[in-house]
Amino acid sequence: MAIKVGDSIPSVTLKHLTRDGMQEISTDSLFKGKKVVLFAVPGAFTPVCSAKHLPGFIQQADAFAAKGIDQIICMAVNDPFVMKAWGENQNAGDKVLMLPDGNGALTRELGLELDARGNGLGIRSQRFALVAQDGVVTALAVDAPGTFDLTSAEAVLSAL
Fold first, then answer.
1. Is position 74 annotated as part of the catalytic site?
2. Of 22, 27, 46, 63, which sits with the fewest C-beta atoms within 10 Å of its C-beta?
């Protein structure tokens, strides 16, 4: 069952590659006491994700901060090395935290998996965006497969 508005973000620990090497990072620490936008893409370096989805959030980072967002997180079911490289390639810097969900644990707990085995991509995340205040979902949008209408930076900004 997919997460919905009013639900708490599941408590999951993920691996994250930082300047200091591989670190564990928990969703509890990412969301506690903060207003966070978490958006997920089916895969790093994929066409729509690289051309539109991630760049929109990077470009609109100041607009999100002006609306009270403490952190923007981009998640994909990719390994930490890929997410780090993608963030560097897209110049995400400190504007967007590139969060790998390498084993799909958070995606699975959110109930937002995408079966992309037909395209050779395995089990990935659906394209979604949510806003959470202190770990509780206050807004959620999930795009239909193959679409990019509800989860763009502009769409999320307009929902704030």
1. no
2. 22
